[in-house]
Amino acid sequence: MIGRLALVVMIPAMVALLQAAAALPPIGDGAAPAFSHVYPYYIEHGHADTGAPNLVTAVLADYRGYDTLGELTVMFTAGVACLLILGADGRRSNDDEGTA
C-alpha cells in the first residue's frame, strides 16, 4: 500500500520537475536572465553598495546573505540528523544497571 502511495506522489513530482528543467535556458546561454540582468548590476554596483573589497564576498555575504544562511542551516541540520541516525543503534550501556 505504501509503495503504491509513493508512486502516486513521486510520478507527478518527477513529471513536474522534468517539465521545469525543460524550460530552463541552455547552459552558458548569454541571453539568460542571470547573465543579462543580474551579473552586470553586481559588477557595476557591488563595491559601492556593499563596501566589500572582494566581489565574491560582496555577492555571498551581502546580496545573497539570507540564501547563504539558509544553505548553512540545511547543512547543519543534515549533519545533526546523520549523527543522530548513526548514533541511535538501540543499544544501551550496562553502566546504569547493577548500581545500587
How would you portray this structure in words?
The model has no long low-confidence stretch (mean pLDDT 84). The protein starts with a helix and ends in a 13-residue tail after the last helix. The chain has helices spanning 2-22, 33-50, 55-63, 65-87. It is built from 4 helices and no strands. Helix 2 (33-50) packs across helix 3. With 100 residues, the chain is mostly helical. The longest helix has 23 residues, at 65-87. The chain has a domain at 37-88. Helices cover 71% and strands 0% of the residues.
The oligomeric state of the chains shown is single chain
Largest sheet: none
What is the averaged pLDDT score? 84
| Individual helix count | 4
- Total count of strands: 0
Helix percent band:
over 70%
Report the C-alpha radius of gyration, rounded. 24 Å
Order of helices and strands: HHHH
What structural class results from the helix and strand content? mainly alpha
Model regions low in confidence, pLDDT < 50 over at least 5 residues: none
What share of the residues does DSSP label as strand, in percent?
under 5%
